[in-house]
Structure formats: structure tokens, C-alpha cells
Design goal:
This protein is an alpha+beta fold and 156 residues long. It is built from three helices and seven strands. Helix content is 22%, strand content 32%.
Length: 156
């Protein structure tokens, strides 16, 4: 399966809000192929997360692959379709982040250490899941992308 090309800043797609995936697309081979290709692309680039608009897919799709020590929260690998933050933990942390669309650059970004997200699987199953640590940071970063917001927009 051929990977996508990662869009680099300052491309207009990075500042554009993505559209939700339509219900009729759930369970289709096309949606499963998109997420599989996104995962391959992210892993080829040594990333931990990737949003649809970073590869020219203007839909609310993110893929995440975080393998973190159990002390920092459980590892997670998967696709989140139409992710929506439903709760944010009180604790926050400012830390350096990188981004595949800004190669070689980092930004200090303040993020919540935990968050709960409602999303769908590629088959349309609704999931409500709480993320912690690096996975929580990654999910927040990728959801920002879906809203046309990059780490450069929120650094500080």
C-alpha cells in the first residue's frame, strides 16, 4: 500500500477545518484504506500521530500510534474518526512538540494531561475513551489539526 505525501507548512490545508466523515462511509473499504495508508505514512515518517488534512484528506480522521511506558498511561494505536473532546482533565503541562508538517521544528505547547474523546471506528462503532500522557498530547495535537490549528498557532 502506497503511503501518502505529508503536506508541509505553510500549505493552506493546514489552516483549513476538516469536514466530518459521513455515516455512509463507515464500514467501507475506502475508509479503511485511507486510515491504513495514513498509519503507514505516519510510521514511515516516525510520527506518533497524523491528521487527514496533513495528507490532503479534508475529513475528520486521525491516526495515532503511541507506545509509552505504563507509568505515563497505556499505549494506543488506532484510527479515530470524527473525534470530539468531551472532557478535559484539570492538570496541564507545557512541553515541546514536533509535527510532521513542520519537519525539524518544535513548539512549547500547553496541553491537558488527560482527556476523554468520543470517536468512531472505521466500522462506525462509537467509542468513548480517556487518554493520558503522551497519547493525550498527541490526540489533542491531531484534533487541533482537524480544526485548522497547528502547534505554531498555540505555542507559548
Amino acid at each position: 500500500m502506497k503511503p501518502y505525501h505529508v503536506i508541509k507548512a505553510p500549505h493552506k490545508f493546514l489552516a483549513t477545518k476538516a469536514a466530518p466523515v459521513a455515516a455512509k462511509e463507515f464500514g467501507t473499504e475506502r475508509l479503511k484504506e485511507k486510515t491504513a495508508r495514513m498509519m503507514i505514512t505516519m510510521m514511515r515518517e516516525n510520527g506518533v500521530g497524523l491528521a487527514g488534512n496533513q495528507v490532503g484528506i479534508m475529513q475528520c480522521i486521525i491516526v495515532v500510534n503511541v507506545n509509552q511506558p505504563e507509568a505515563d498511561g497505556p499505549s494506543f494505536r488506532g484510527a479515530l474518526i470524527n473525534p470530539e473532546i468531551v472532557a478535559l482533565g484539570d492538570a496541564r503541562e507545557s512541553k515541546a512538540e514536533g509535527c510532521l508538517s513542520f519537519p525539524g521544528e518544535t513548539s512549547i505547547v500547553d496541553r491537558h494531561l488527560t482527556l476523554t474523546v468520543k470517536y468512531f471506528t472505521t466500522d462506525g462503532e462509537e467509542v468513548i475513551k480517556t487518554f493520558e500522557g503522551l497519547t493525550a498530547r498527541c490526540v489533542q495535537h491531531e484534533i487541533d489539526h482537524l480544526h485548522g490549528v497547528t502547534m505554531k498557532d498555540v505555542e507559548g
